[in-house]
From TrEMBL:
Protein name: Sulfate transport system permease protein CysW
Membrane topology: Multi-pass membrane protein
UniProt keyword terms in alphabetical order: Cell inner membrane, Cell membrane, Membrane, Transmembrane, Transmembrane helix, Transport
Signal peptide (from-to): none
Any single biological process term in GO: transmembrane transport
Segments traversing the membrane: 33-54, 66-86, 92-115, 136-156
Keyword Transport in annotation: yes
Entry's Gene Ontology cellular component terms: plasma membrane
CDD domains named among the record's database cross-references: TM_PBP2
Subcellular location: Cell inner membrane; Cell membrane
Organism: Providencia rettgeri
Domain ABC transmembrane type-1 intervals: 1-155
Gene3D superfamilies, per database record: MetI-like
Similarity-based family: Belongs to the binding-protein-dependent transport system permease family.
Amino acid sequence: MDLLIILPFAIPPVVSSVGLLQIFADEPFMLVGTPWILIGTYFTITLPFMYRALANSFQGINLHDLMDAAHLLGASTFQAFMMIVLPNIRKGMLVSLLISFSFLMGEFVFANILVGTRYETLQIYLFNMRQTSGHFTSALVMSYFLFTLLLTWLAMRLNRSGDE
Protein backbone atom coordinates (compact mmCIF):
# COMPACT_ATOMS: atom_id res chain seq x y z
CA MET A 1 0.00 0.00 0.00
CA ASP A 2 2.80 2.40 0.85
CA LEU A 3 4.36 1.78 -2.56
CA LEU A 4 1.16 2.91 -4.28
CA ILE A 5 1.06 6.03 -2.14
CA ILE A 6 4.69 6.92 -2.90
CA LEU A 7 4.39 6.16 -6.64
CA PRO A 8 3.15 9.65 -7.66
CA PHE A 9 6.30 11.13 -6.09
CA ALA A 10 8.51 8.93 -8.27
CA ILE A 11 6.86 9.72 -11.61
CA PRO A 12 7.92 13.08 -13.08
CA PRO A 13 5.05 15.49 -13.87
CA VAL A 14 5.94 15.53 -17.58
CA VAL A 15 5.55 11.76 -17.83
CA SER A 16 2.27 11.87 -15.92
CA SER A 17 0.99 14.68 -18.14
CA VAL A 18 1.78 12.80 -21.34
CA GLY A 19 0.04 9.71 -19.96
CA LEU A 20 -3.02 11.74 -19.01
CA LEU A 21 -3.05 13.34 -22.45
CA GLN A 22 -3.13 9.92 -24.09
CA ILE A 23 -5.87 8.62 -21.81
CA PHE A 24 -8.19 11.62 -21.83
CA ALA A 25 -7.72 12.96 -25.37
CA ASP A 26 -10.12 10.50 -27.04
CA GLU A 27 -13.70 9.41 -26.56
CA PRO A 28 -15.49 8.72 -24.21
CA PHE A 29 -13.81 11.17 -21.82
CA MET A 30 -12.34 14.06 -23.88
CA LEU A 31 -11.16 16.05 -20.85
CA VAL A 32 -7.93 17.48 -22.25
CA GLY A 33 -8.06 21.25 -22.39
CA THR A 34 -10.85 21.55 -19.83
CA PRO A 35 -10.52 22.59 -16.21
CA TRP A 36 -11.93 19.21 -15.15
CA ILE A 37 -8.74 17.36 -16.03
CA LEU A 38 -6.75 19.88 -14.00
CA ILE A 39 -9.05 19.51 -10.99
CA GLY A 40 -8.82 15.71 -11.17
CA THR A 41 -5.06 15.82 -11.61
CA TYR A 42 -4.58 18.20 -8.70
CA PHE A 43 -6.77 16.01 -6.53
CA THR A 44 -4.75 12.90 -7.34
CA ILE A 45 -1.47 14.76 -6.83
CA THR A 46 -2.45 15.90 -3.35
CA LEU A 47 -3.82 12.53 -2.21
CA PRO A 48 -0.39 11.11 -1.23
CA PHE A 49 0.43 14.25 0.75
CA MET A 50 -2.89 14.14 2.56
CA TYR A 51 -2.66 10.41 3.16
CA ARG A 52 0.80 10.55 4.73
CA ALA A 53 -0.06 13.42 7.07
CA LEU A 54 -3.35 11.87 8.17
CA ALA A 55 -1.87 8.38 8.51
CA ASN A 56 0.79 9.76 10.84
CA SER A 57 -1.91 11.47 12.91
CA PHE A 58 -3.93 8.27 13.17
CA GLN A 59 -0.85 6.30 14.18
CA GLY A 60 -0.28 8.75 17.02
CA ILE A 61 -3.60 7.97 18.70
CA ASN A 62 -5.15 4.73 19.92
CA LEU A 63 -8.32 5.09 17.88
CA HIS A 64 -9.94 1.80 18.83
CA ASP A 65 -9.67 2.41 22.57
CA LEU A 66 -10.83 6.02 22.24
CA MET A 67 -13.92 5.00 20.28
CA ASP A 68 -14.70 2.20 22.75
CA ALA A 69 -14.42 4.60 25.68
CA ALA A 70 -16.68 7.12 23.95
CA HIS A 71 -19.28 4.45 23.23
CA LEU A 72 -19.15 3.26 26.84
CA LEU A 73 -19.82 6.82 27.97
CA GLY A 74 -22.91 7.00 25.75
CA ALA A 75 -21.64 8.87 22.71
CA SER A 76 -22.79 7.89 19.26
CA THR A 77 -20.22 7.09 16.59
CA PHE A 78 -20.75 10.50 14.99
CA GLN A 79 -20.38 12.30 18.32
CA ALA A 80 -17.23 10.34 19.13
CA PHE A 81 -15.79 11.17 15.74
CA MET A 82 -16.60 14.88 16.03
CA MET A 83 -15.58 15.34 19.67
CA ILE A 84 -12.66 12.93 20.02
CA VAL A 85 -11.18 11.85 16.70
CA LEU A 86 -11.25 15.17 14.82
CA PRO A 87 -9.54 17.18 17.59
CA ASN A 88 -6.83 14.51 17.79
CA ILE A 89 -6.09 14.56 14.06
CA ARG A 90 -6.47 18.34 13.67
CA LYS A 91 -2.71 18.89 13.34
CA GLY A 92 -2.44 16.24 10.65
CA MET A 93 -5.33 17.79 8.75
CA LEU A 94 -3.70 21.21 8.97
CA VAL A 95 -0.35 19.83 7.79
CA SER A 96 -1.97 18.02 4.86
CA LEU A 97 -3.84 21.18 3.88
CA LEU A 98 -0.73 23.37 3.98
CA ILE A 99 1.47 20.88 2.14
CA SER A 100 -1.16 20.34 -0.55
CA PHE A 101 -1.75 24.07 -0.94
CA SER A 102 1.94 24.91 -1.21
CA PHE A 103 2.57 22.11 -3.70
CA LEU A 104 -0.36 23.10 -5.91
CA MET A 105 0.59 26.78 -5.90
CA GLY A 106 3.99 25.85 -7.29
CA GLU A 107 2.82 23.27 -9.83
CA PHE A 108 3.35 24.55 -13.36
CA VAL A 109 3.97 21.49 -15.54
CA PHE A 110 0.52 19.90 -15.22
CA ALA A 111 -1.30 23.18 -15.79
CA ASN A 112 0.80 24.11 -18.80
CA ILE A 113 0.65 20.75 -20.55
CA LEU A 114 -2.93 19.72 -19.75
CA VAL A 115 -4.85 22.97 -20.29
CA GLY A 116 -2.26 25.21 -21.90
CA THR A 117 -3.19 28.86 -22.05
CA ARG A 118 -6.95 28.32 -22.37
CA TYR A 119 -7.43 28.60 -18.62
CA GLU A 120 -4.89 30.78 -16.87
CA THR A 121 -3.92 29.39 -13.52
CA LEU A 122 -1.68 31.46 -11.28
CA GLN A 123 1.40 29.61 -12.47
CA ILE A 124 0.60 30.10 -16.16
CA TYR A 125 -0.20 33.77 -15.54
CA LEU A 126 3.15 34.30 -13.81
CA PHE A 127 4.92 32.51 -16.65
CA ASN A 128 3.21 34.69 -19.26
CA MET A 129 3.84 37.90 -17.31
CA ARG A 130 7.60 37.33 -17.03
CA GLN A 131 8.02 38.70 -20.56
CA THR A 132 6.20 41.96 -19.82
CA SER A 133 6.79 44.35 -16.95
CA GLY A 134 9.32 43.08 -14.44
CA HIS A 135 7.95 45.40 -11.78
CA PHE A 136 4.44 44.02 -12.04
CA THR A 137 5.69 40.44 -11.96
CA SER A 138 7.85 41.18 -8.92
CA ALA A 139 4.91 42.80 -7.14
CA LEU A 140 2.72 39.82 -7.97
CA VAL A 141 5.28 37.33 -6.67
CA MET A 142 5.73 39.37 -3.48
CA SER A 143 1.94 39.44 -3.00
CA TYR A 144 1.88 35.69 -3.50
CA PHE A 145 4.68 35.28 -0.96
CA LEU A 146 2.92 37.52 1.59
CA PHE A 147 -0.34 35.60 1.10
CA THR A 148 1.47 32.32 1.76
CA LEU A 149 3.20 33.84 4.79
CA LEU A 150 -0.13 35.09 6.15
CA LEU A 151 -1.74 31.70 5.60
CA THR A 152 1.12 29.95 7.40
CA TRP A 153 0.96 32.41 10.30
CA LEU A 154 -2.80 31.91 10.56
CA ALA A 155 -2.39 28.12 10.56
CA MET A 156 0.26 28.29 13.27
CA ARG A 157 -1.93 30.64 15.31
CA LEU A 158 -4.92 28.30 15.02
CA ASN A 159 -2.72 25.36 15.94
CA ARG A 160 -1.34 27.16 18.99
CA SER A 161 -4.77 28.26 20.22
CA GLY A 162 -5.99 24.66 20.09
CA ASP A 163 -3.18 23.47 22.36
CA GLU A 164 -3.97 25.92 25.15
